[in-house]
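Fold this sequence, please.
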Amino acid sequence: MKTAKKLAAGLILTALMVSAAGCGNNTSNTENTGNKDNTGNTPTKSTEPAKTSEASAEKVKIIYSMWGSAAEGNTTQKVADRFNASQDTIEVEVQAIPWENYMTKLNTLATAGQLPDTGMLKEDGVIQWSSEGMLNDVSAMYEGSDSKPLDSLAYKHKGNTVAYAAANEILLLYYNKDMFDKAGVAYPPAVLDQAWTWEQFVDTAKKLTIDKNGKHPGEEGFDEQGIVQFGASVENLPWQLEAWALSNSGGFYSEDGSEVRIGEDASMEAIQRVADLYLKDHVAPLSVGQTDDGIQRTVIAGTVAMATNGQWNVGTSLNSAKEEGLNYGVAVLPYMKDKVTISTGGANVVFSQTKHPKEAMEWLKWYNSEENNWELISSGIWMPTLDKWYKDETLTRKWVENPNFPPYDEYKSAVVDYAQSPAARPAAWFYTNYTTDFNTLLGSVLGDVWTGKTTAKEAITKNLEALKAVHAGSN
């Protein structure tokens, strides 16, 4: 999905490099590795059943595939070498494949029955590959462990867990505390029980929107063409818009991902309300939903008082902005009817052609552990996946009490507690197929909605059958 720049998938590559070196640039932006389309080829199902390896005096060899250069593969191999030295039953070999050829190579290997044992897979590819019988059920990966990933981080197909996210990300509301203080306006709530309604959000945004003459929307003489500070911005990339459809008791898909719901009035109304922040409320800048740099364009640029976007921004951009003087805070999202945020994270999978699924899962469990991705977590780029980091205060403090984060109580409430609450829903690619094609088409369909040339209802209704077709894989 070119327009969505699915951050979490790209951030896996950063993990490979940072965890191997044991240190990294906490403020480096890793967004660009996850915004390229795969080949769209459908892998061929292997006729060879998965087998569990028998005990052997020699180490079982596991091949792990990743997208990246030879140098990045060597760096990742150093991580694997630590695992190899930690036990005497498994030997992991890293296979690096350039991004441009990654899916083509995997499809070729699948057809030949020569897939690696385990490897990286883009979010939008997990359900497709599972539907073709190419992925193992990994439900047993955390059996007997003292902790397991949050429920919202499980990729599920036909009731089976076919992958766990390697990291956690959720959508939040960021805000400039100095702008709120200057306006004498109370900060957005960090506590879910106190979350603003959509109407409270818009009313507050009006108080923070100022034209060149110091007037606010609704005041006599307000110049909507001369706004110098906007009160709000809601990221309108298609995959993030799903949060508002869900919040309005609608959605893009049915709960099991089998049906398209974006044509329901509640879903279309939610999208229109986001567009109206610019068109009618005059509290948000025009955004066309094409680039995932919303926090840089808004809160960091100093042009917007509060904006929605993903948690990864703490590490990828806000740390640097904080060092340069930005006094920012984090809050839970406002809501329309239901309190909702979206969880996401790129996947590591176990391919069904492996003869060693148990050993592959053991490697992934070790590799995905927080201790082996600590630089990414402590910098704020990733959040942990295991529930103990959210429920055990000692571990939560180890994670959050550092200079890279907002104050502990604020961040714990607005992020840590929020991520494990019923409000956290999995992004669509955790449970349905062809999300790349669907979101690409939806982004095109909504283009004229943001500028007011048409309404969300008109645009979606006109293109609903096409949206249903791409969801069914008939594009």
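The chain has two domains: 7-168+345-386, 172-342+433-471. Residues 172-342+433-471 form a domain with the D-Maltodextrin-Binding Protein; domain 2 fold (CATH 3.40.190.10).
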